[in-house]
Amino acid sequence: MSKHLSRIASVMLIVGTWLMPCAAHAAYPDKPVRIIVPFSPGGGTDLVARTLGVGLAQALGVSVLIENKPGAGTVIGTDLVAKSAPDGYTLLIATFANAVNPSLLPKLPYASDTAFAPIILIGRSPNVLVVRADSPFKSVSELITAAKAQPKKFTFASQGNGTSAHLAGELFKNLAKVEMTHVPYKGSGPAITDLLGGQVDMTFGTSSAVGAHLDSGKLRALGVTTTERSPAMAQVPTIAESGLPGYAAESWYGLVAPAGTPPEVIERLNAAAKKAVQQDSFRKRVADEGLVISAGSPAELGTYMRAEEARWRRVVREGGITVD
To answer: Phi and psi for 199 in degrees, rounded to 5?
Structure first.
């Protein structure tokens, strides 16, 4: 009898051990999830993250905390996530900067191609070349003419080195053959504050960051950076059709986790994020800002990020673009 009971206990121990990881994965999430935004509060990425966080919390059934970790052209916040436990509880809002930093900053503290597991491409949108409402410039061609006549006089702000606003401006300089000075900030909020205050002349801001100021009449849009006009700003011409043929750039937002995060957790997060971005509240908030929702598979985001990195590596090399 003793030997029989011992055998039963051994079997139960083996079965229990086998079930433990399954139970752990099935329990995800059982505590708050935090999303790191590598920019200051108030910008476009912050807006997208906080809007996503509301729906994600509902879909996951736990709190979703948004933490802003700006600095070093998004490297500080990105590195924090790269070095976090791969358990699905620390995520990153990935942006254009994740694709371009490897070519601008060769000594990143993480391996950009292997440090993250893609979850979902949230959406893509144009950047918008904007000036203050009292600016003398009414068109892209007027700006180019003035910049050629007065080299280095004009400044353009960005939410940080390596961000979409930075590279959109550098591409503009390169194709238009003009000299303007880049002024990096730690987020869209501070950049636009200084633009409104007259400390800088323009920005190639994300549509989510500049939309409210365009609606209020404080800023004027000269052109969108994409190859086609934005449905949200159909009256604003593209920069390419406004005097700079061949010009094209776009912003995007994705959600990633540290590499090594279990596939089951990635799938759970992907499903929850899809549900979140399909809510009317999310769609209305980002549609007003020009974001076209993607919401595909983790593989879609991985493929897109690799293609963006290759494209901008070529642009950076051919244009001789460097971090200020």
So the answer is: -75, -25
Distance CA 152, CA 275 (A): 47
State the maximum Cα–Cα separation within the chain, in Å, rounded to a whole number: 99
3-state class of 30 per DSSP?
A: coil
**C-alpha to C-alpha distance for 324 and 322, rounded to whole angstroms:** 6
CA distance 122 to 208: 13
Helix (H, G, I), strand (E, B) or coil at 25: helix
Angle subtended by helix axes 298-319 and 164-176, to nearest 10: 40
**What share of the chain in percent tops pLDDT 70?**
91
Cα–Cα–Cα angle for 235, 241, 243, rounded to 5 degrees: 120
The pLDDT of residue 289 is 66
Q: What is the pLDDT of residues 161-201, one digit of tens each?
A: 888 899 999 999 999 999 999 999 988 889 999 999 999 99
Give me the chain's average pLDDT, please.
Answer: 89
Decide: 189 and 70 in contact? Cβ < 8 Å.
no
pLDDT tens column, 222-270: 999 998 998 888 899 999 999 899 999 988 999 999 999 999 999 999 9
- Provide the pLDDT for residue 19: 47
Do the beta carbons of residue 221 and residue 207 sit within 8 Å?
no
Query: Residue 10 pLDDT more than 80?
Result: no
Domains of the chain: 30-124+251-319 (3.40.190.150), 127-242 (3.40.190.10)
